[in-house]
């Protein structure tokens, strides 16, 4: 693995930079670590207390930063859900294998994470780990794409992109829906419910009638998996669907925010509060079982918060669906006592591409990946200030739109024009300085084209495009493909 890491560093041609608030931490164990990968859905950068925001109290998410290291420039490879997940679980840019858009867009209905790609679950299981997934899949609904056929020993969750959190007709449930008339989310009181339909919950391959609030149900199953597998190394992938819509929450959580007058925003905040409780419960069972010191916990959002919802992506521009910072820079934190410094902050760009090699290294695997990975093991980088940052550049492609971040420069090509920002002084991407730096545009464009040579065309068309008015930039309509 050390040789593999050095090779990857050489491939990226990394330059030396400084690290803030990261202390060298000696390695205290040679045992394979348990790995818990928590993915949350559409959580805005400022929707929790990770980065000093306090509109919605999230003490358990905050505790991950207090006990571990928070990444201030953590990126996903796509501003939408399924492609982001495809990259996370393969450790490769999804454009390498054509998973560029949402699989439900395929008119044949046959698409999902291409079967030629190995997953992190495959890699962990080959190392002797028990592998479990609890939560939202969204990488194909056909049997060939099922989690049990993609490296997971256990599965409880939803195969599709979303599901009702609970029967919305219950007296103790608050829900809100989008009004096309007012273009806002409004409190709704449905009078009937026909169940989840195709968005059913399953245990393994068998649909189940799940009556609990779905966030709580996922937590219940995750805690059970940890208890059942505490005596041998395990990998748990826990992709919650919160706070992705629909906006639904039980009275218990809704009552925590009596001062919020906007009902939809109140429900959204309550959903995040429920999510935080669940993360606390998962952390609690790790401690209860005496596993804390030998468990790597990673929490990331799959993309930025939705610009049409009540997400707060401050201080970044726009959000989900877009290649601006609000769409691709996300909450990202990692905890591993004795290996990662507590209360640390890492400011250089990292990516969900790094999760795969980091987890495999924590498992002490000596096996070579079946395909070249696009990320690196972050642990040695966090342990030594002298190590260079993990990426010289990061890349994005969204149909005709694309972007590059190299150092502090961020170039976006969209609507047949360039948008260039110096993130060191303009993290909100307010000032397009493309006219002043044609040389930088030329250099970054060359780098993008070189990277893009290693990609293929999308295997299926986009589902739709998001355009005006919410996704316009400086008065220009930009069409973002889904």
What would you note in describing this structure?
This protein is of the alpha/beta class. The protein has helices at residues 2-12, 59-67, 81-90, 120-126, 214-228, 251-254, 263-288, 325-328, 355-362, 379-383, 438-452, and strands spanning 34-40, 69-71, 74-75, 130-136, 154-158, 173-179, 184-188, 201-203, 206-208, 234-239, 247-250, 295-301, 332-335, 344-346, 350-351, 393-398, 401-406, 409-414, 417-422, 465-466, 480-481. Strand 18 and strand 19 form a beta hairpin. The two termini are 36 Å apart.
With strands numbered from the N-terminus, the spatial order across the biggest sheet is 9-8-5-4-10-1-12-13-2-14
Distance between the termini: 36 Å
Mean pLDDT, to the nearest integer, reads 93
Low-pLDDT segments, ≥5 res: 1-27
Total number of helices: 11
Shape call: globular
Radius of gyration: 21 Å
By secondary-structure content and strand pairing, the structural class works out as alpha/beta
The count of strands amounts to: 21
Biggest pleated sheet: 10 strands, mixed
Portion in strands:
15-25%
Percent helix range: 10-25%
């Amino acid at each position: 693995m050390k040789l593999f890491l050095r090779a990857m560093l050489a491939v990226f041609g990394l330059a030396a930079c400084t690290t803030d608030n990261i202390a060298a931490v000696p390695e205290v164990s040679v045992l394979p670590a348990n790995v818990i990968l928590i993915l949350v859905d559409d959580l805005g950068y400022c929707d929790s207390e990770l980065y000093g925001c306090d509109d919605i109290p999230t003490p358990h998410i905050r505790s991950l930063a207090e006990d571990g290291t928070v990444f201030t420039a953590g990126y996903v490879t796509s501003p939408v859900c399924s492609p982001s997940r495809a990259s996370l679980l393969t450790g490769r840019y999804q454009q390498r294998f054509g998973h560029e858009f949402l699989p439900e867009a395929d008119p044949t209905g046959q698409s999902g994470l291409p079967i030629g790609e190995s997953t992190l679950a495959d890699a962990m299981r080959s190392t002797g780990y028990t592998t479990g997934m609890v939560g939202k899949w969204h990488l194909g609904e056909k049997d060939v794409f099922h989690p049990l056929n993609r490296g997971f020993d256990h599965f409880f969750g939803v195969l599709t992109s979303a599901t009702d959190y609970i029967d919305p007709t219950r007296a103790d449930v608050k829900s809100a829906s989008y009004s096309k008339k007012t273009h806002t989310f409004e409190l709704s009181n449905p009078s009937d419910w026909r169940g989840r339909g195709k968005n059913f919950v399953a245990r393994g391959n068998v649909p189940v009638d799940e009556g609990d609030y779905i966030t709580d149900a996922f937590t219940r199953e995750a805690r059970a998996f940890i208890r059942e597998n505490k005596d041998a190394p395990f990998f748990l992938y826990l992709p919650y669907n919160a706070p992705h819509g629909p906006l639904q929450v039980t009275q218990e959580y809704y009552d925590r925010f009596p001062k919020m007058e906007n009902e939809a925003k109140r429900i959204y905040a309550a959903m995040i509060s429920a999510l935080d409780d669940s993360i606390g419960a998962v952390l609690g069972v790790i401690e209860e079982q005496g596993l804390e010191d030998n468990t790597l916990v990673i929490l990331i959002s799959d993309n930025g918060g939705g610009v049409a919802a009540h997400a707060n992506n401050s201080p970044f521009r726009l959000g989900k669906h877009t290649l601006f910072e609000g769409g691709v820079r996300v909450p990202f934190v990692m905890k591993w006592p004795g290996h990662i410094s507590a209360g640390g902050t890492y400011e250089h760009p990292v990516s969900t591409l790094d999760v795969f090699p980091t987890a495999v290294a924590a498992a002490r695997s000596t096996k070579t990946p079946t395909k070249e990975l696009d990320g690196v093991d972050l642990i040695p980088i966090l342990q030594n200030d002298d190590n260079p940052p993990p990426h010289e550049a990061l890349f994005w492609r969204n149909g005709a739109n694309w972007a590059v971040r190299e150092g502090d420069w961020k170039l976006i090509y969209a609507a047949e024009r360039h948008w260039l920002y110096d993130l060191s002084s303009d993290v909100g991407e307010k000032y397009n300085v493309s006219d002043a730096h044609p040389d930088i545009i030329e250099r970054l464009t060359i780098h993008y084209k070189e990277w893009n040579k290693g990609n293929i065309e999308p295997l299926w068309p986009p589902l739709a495009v998001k355009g005006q008015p919410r996704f316009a930039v400086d008065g220009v309509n930009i069409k973002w493909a889904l």
